[in-house]
Amino acid sequence: MTKLLVLGGRFAGLTAAYTAKRLLGDKIDVTLINNTPYAAFRPGMPHVSIGVFKAEDLLVDLGTALPAKGIKFKQGTVTKIDAKKNRVEYDDPSGHKQTEDYDYLVVGFGAKLGIEHIKGWHEYGNSVCEPDYATALHEKLEKFQGGNIAIGSGIFYQGTLTPRGTYPKNWAAPADSACEGPVFEMSLMIPAYLKKRGILDKTHITIFSPGEEILTDISKESRGVVKSLYSSQGFDMVWNFKLAEVRKDEIVSEDGKTIKADIAIILPPYEHNDAVTNSTPDLFDDGGFIPTDAHMRSIKYDNIYACGDANQMTVPKLGYLAVQTSRIAMQDLANRLGVPTKIDEYHPEVVCIADNPLEGFAIAVNDTTFYGGTKGLAVPSPTNHMKKELFTKYFMWTNGDMALDKYLASW
């Protein structure tokens, strides 16, 4: 039986594993390796930080969910991909080194939060990108009595997209930040949270970005609306701020600029997964991401697919693009293994919902201008808040099986 090995248990890895098993059934032996025993619904972590959810409410138990669909699960941290020998090395939870061979491989473990690039992170850094970070931020916000809050993102260590995959040039471009969606969402949630606690008038908020301005992956018109919103609320805005250090009451850029911050809420720098350093070098580009063709096949190793954040072309690093790339990759694999399957075309779009659950509305973004398109929508409404709630319930109910995502994304 053909063996498919999937690395990573987030949107990309889960979609690949579930889709492969659904399309190929007994023709495929699917094993998924993830560094934690759970898959967290990361779009819900900002909600954890303001007390709407507890982190444990948004965790899928992979040891139960995957075997229920005929998929094997192994917990471990991948340390090496040997593309020439069709082998992956990983450390199991007890620290022992293990190996797993494959016929086909899906690299879906995505990027790494490069917190080591920020001096003072462990003492003063805060984020909503992981369950433990979001929980710790909630505890800190509950004790906050007013002062200065800074919200922004770290640098995206993307490389120069060299060598480039065999896909249309407009599908990928350099970006200052890997994804500023969480920054935008927190800029909606935090004022509502502070207002609920009666300390909004005691707090000054600054929004910062490493780019020329925030949200450069959406249209200029939509960015203008966002900046007008920030101005109306009295926020300071600081652009070209490349974060280097977090201190007790301020953050510092690479060129020595400072922003007052009793609490700094940061999307940490993004960079390649640690395993890249030990893996077959020509599998990756100069930033540590995998160049592929339009069906997500590595341009160097025909039996390796890269999906989600691990793929060079997925810019910004979005869950929507992760699901789309994984679905296409497994449709391609099904055809290669003798199961005729329609392969969807990849259409990169910035699709996300920035929620404000405490005030019952959300801003839905659907934008193609980063890729040369003309669509640039950013629509606030109570209905969009309901969509975010339903999406959360859908993910948890299906244990992360995003089979209907291509229908729901435009919904």
UniProtKB/TrEMBL annotation:
Superkingdom of source: Archaea
Coiled-coil ranges from the UniProt annotation: none
Pfam families hit by this protein: Pyr_redox_2
Single annotated GO MF: oxidoreductase activity
InterPro entries on file: FAD/NAD-bd_sf, FAD/NAD-binding_dom, SQRD
Domain FAD/NAD(P)-binding positions: 3-324
Transmembrane segment boundaries: none
Descriptive protein name: Sulfide-quinone oxidoreductase
Natural source organism: Picrophilus torridus (strain ATCC 700027 / DSM 9790 / JCM 10055 / NBRC 100828 / KAW 2/3)
